[in-house]
Amino acid sequence: AQSVTQLGSHVSVSEGALVLLRCNYSSSVPPYLFWYVQYPNQGLQLLLKYTSAATLVKGINGFEAEFKKSETSFHLTKPSAHMRDAAEYFCAVRRGGSNYKLTFGKGTLLTVNP
Amino acid sequence: DTEVTQTPKHLVMGMTNKKSLKCEQHMGHRAMYWYKQKAKKPPELMFVYSYEKLSINESVPSRFSPECPNSSLLNLHLHALQPEDSALYLCASSQEAGLGSSYNEQFFGPGTRLTVL
Questions:
Q1: Residue A74 in contact with residue A25, Cβ under 8 Å?
Q2: Do A100 and B31 touch (CB under 8 A)?
Q3: What is the β-pairing status of strands B73-79 and A102-104?
Q4: CA of B2 vs chain A CAs: smallest distance (Å)
Q5: What is the mean pLDDT of chain B?
Q6: Mean pLDDT value across chain A
Q7: B98 contacts in chain A (CB < 8 Å)
Q8: Pairwise CB contact (< 8 Å): B108 & A44
Q9: Which of A1-15, A23-37, A99-113 has the lowest mean pLDDT?
Q10: Does pLDDT of B96 surpass 90?
């Protein structure tokens, strides 16, 4: 079964610092990977998705992620954190074909300190 | 319109009540989903509708009853719930999930915060 592991349930950075949120996947076939963000008391918003067109994927709000097959990783980064980036971040994997199911990681809470 | 709407935003109900959650999208998506999310946990899939037919039921108790009246609407009927059913209920939609649509992302609504007393 496909799964994702998010390393670190809580990451704290200073405003202006690099954000790095880690996600590793397990998959025997090419995965379809997603990063979602959830602000307090809101639904999930898609940040970016891996489509196999490029290993470096750019998303919204200045986030990007790099797919590394050799490391089975899809880490999320942002060069400079803003206070508004404070939220819960979920990595998710979806099997291809007719399978609808998204499998989420446990989430990483990002706090940004002034 | 790239939005999934959900009503109500908050719902408090007793264990003997019957209530419904509503979800609507006008993006022409043919797959719609219900998720349950407990605090500090990822969303858990409950049901999937594809072309208005129930495609997946993740062994959800029968006190939750989904309904898809048309391609834009998705309901979740609630009856005789338990306090442990208190959670954020999220609706999502995607273009479709058949062959050739593997990358189609799911668009989420803002959720309904349900409290069962």
A1: yes
A2: yes
A3: unpaired
A4: 12
A5: 91
A6: 90
A7: 98
A8: yes
A9: A23-37
A10: no
